[in-house]
């Protein structure tokens, strides 16, 4: 057992063992995204008591378990990844029906968001069996927590998780254009070999702030906020800046000053046209910022709905 985690396993038992852990249940366990110390005490306890650990990559998970002093025989590990999730889910269900406790972990973070696990959870629930979440590390919420992406109004609160955009340039450009019309905060993921292409695509959004969070929780973690049109130059400033996995936070649309003409035209158009069409025409007619008009349109729609 790793000496650095021996006390953690003891604390995990003391803190979590009194809880009931039913048999025949799937435990969806979040694991660290880089820093081993980010494991929860309840996750350590569950990883000790389950009969099987289903995982995205058995070799990766065996290494993770070994770090905590929880190494298991190969017969207690079950590979379940994006290419075999439907078939492997049936194996999980069969073991659950025998009364086993099974944990599912992805390679890092919370399963079922951008990693496998969602189809597994759906299949287990469809079979009438329990799924139990063990929350923990998530690159998405970690990046949001430090991005300072404050919504300027109630209409633009919350966030949209868009994940990985398309790899083809034309399709990615269309997606970026759609995100540019989204007033809320948007969260993207990107790999190091494609971050430069994504930065170039996002540059069309001009002064809209974007936070790049690189290698979250790891030794070379770096978090920076730049206007979208400055991202390519910032990445090119150092080869190190394009290394590692990225979370990209597109900040909410900032409220801008308006003479009143854009809002007046927008109200007239909204009475007759769909929101996106009204916003586009109002921007073309008055020269007002399209993002600000879209945010105003959402507020108008919300106010009208509250009055009904």
Structure description:
The chain is an alpha/beta fold. Helices cover 42% and strands 16% of the residues. The protein is built from twelve helices and ten strands. The strands form two sheets. A five-stranded parallel sheet has the order 3-2-4-1-5, sandwiched between helices. A five-stranded mixed sheet has the order 6-7-10-8-9, with helices on one face. Strand 2, helix 3 and strand 3 form a beta-alpha-beta unit. Helix 7 packs across helix 8, helix 10 runs antiparallel to helix 11 and helix 11 crosses helix 12. It is elongated, with a radius of gyration of 23 Å.
Distance between the termini: 64 Å
Using the alpha-carbon principal axes, give the shape. elongated
Assembly category:
single chain
What is the number of E strands?
10
Instruction: Give the DSSP E fraction (strand runs of 2 or more residues).
Output: 15-25%
Largest sheet: 5 strands, parallel
Query: Roughly how many Å is the radius of gyration?
Result: 23 Å
In spatial order, strands of the major sheet run: 3-2-4-1-5
